[in-house]
UniProtKB/TrEMBL annotation:
Pfam families: CMD (PF02627). This is 4-carboxymuconolactone decarboxylase. Its EC number is 4.1.1.44. It comes from the Bacteria. Signal peptide: none annotated. GO terms for molecular function: 4-carboxymuconolactone decarboxylase activity. Residues 35-117 form the Carboxymuconolactone decarboxylase-like domain. The lineage of its organism: Bacteria, Pseudomonadati, Pseudomonadota, Alphaproteobacteria, Rhodobacterales. Keywords: Lyase. InterPro entries: 4CMD/NDH-1_regulator, AhpD-like, CMD-like, Decarb_PcaC.
Amino acid sequence: MDELYEQGMKTRRSVLGDAHVDRAEANKTPFDEPFQTLITRSAWGTVWASDAISQRERSMLTLALLAATGNFEEIPMHIRATARTGASKQDVLEAFQHVAIYAGVPRANHALKLAKATYAEMEAAAE
């Protein structure tokens, strides 16, 4: 693969963790391989790899955007990623409070519900 893809895989692993990326790679098929390459190159190799803002800030933005647009399926994955990006529970709460004001209380409420459940799972796994 090319340099952008390689950078994307490196960034993806640093944010999501090896176990997550290994599972995703193992589940990749010829059907979705072009899509996986696209997100690895663009999302992870370009946007997340940029040093213009910190990974902590990127986590907060990503979680807020996912909640604001109603893309709740990826919120648990990005909550788990906060363990590696440095975004604290307070950071996440602040991001979701912005969602409540600017995109709607129901979306922020659902995002908080998902975050609470994911944090509980993370804490239970750490015990």
